[in-house]
Write a structure and sequence with these properties.
mainly alpha; 2 domains; 9 helices
Amino acid sequence: MHRFVYVLALFCAPLLAPRALAQDVDEATRLRARRIMEEAQAHEEAERHALAGERFLDLYGVMSEAGLARAPVALWSAGYNLARVPGRGQEASETLRRFLVESAPLSQDQEVAGYRAEAATLIAELDARRAADPSADLQDPSGDGAAGEAGAGSGGGVSPVGPVVLAVGGAVLVAGLITVGVAFAQDQDLRSRCPSQVGCDPAMADEVDATRALGIAGDVLWIVGAAAAVAGLVLTLTLEDGGDGDAASAALQLRGTPGGAVAALQWRIQ
């Protein structure tokens, strides 16, 4: 916050001084600079450092065009914020080095001297960090602070576990329905060959057993598939990628019964 207030003072002070001592800054430029500073302050307070850094660079451009000698201080604020954005270390270091060069005429100012000392320390830290991990500047080359911070707050995207379970469950459900359909067709064929189901050809006994087993298998498949599909849908809606695994859990229980099977799905959402 102190950096922002100081930049504001640096820009407004000349405007409040007598015209003989002030630089000629038109009203449109003054209002534009004030708007940019307010946006930069809001981004920095919200820890959207990438956006804050960009707006401070814009402020530097406006102050430079207006010919204000203290424009380099905006470079310090820009570099300070960019240094806190993954993947922007090199850009931050270059911006801070530019600040040191352009602020040299202001080094007699006590507060600017303090910023220069902080900038030198921060540059050394950034250079050491990049030397230890050359890939550091590749982690987030876009520097999209808004998206990165929003992603951190939201906890990640949809976990792939849910869609996979949903797809597998759907496939098993379809296979079960097809199996039940085949068993039903075979059963109708057997009934047509022995409508009374009394005194039928003993040779049909094996076919009857096979048809009954096929029907049971089909029932088990479609029940399990339906339960898995529901579990997959629940996980898709509740489980986030990169989570701790405690946000949602599901359990499928299957037990056999005379003539079929019973499946039970239980899930817990925190």
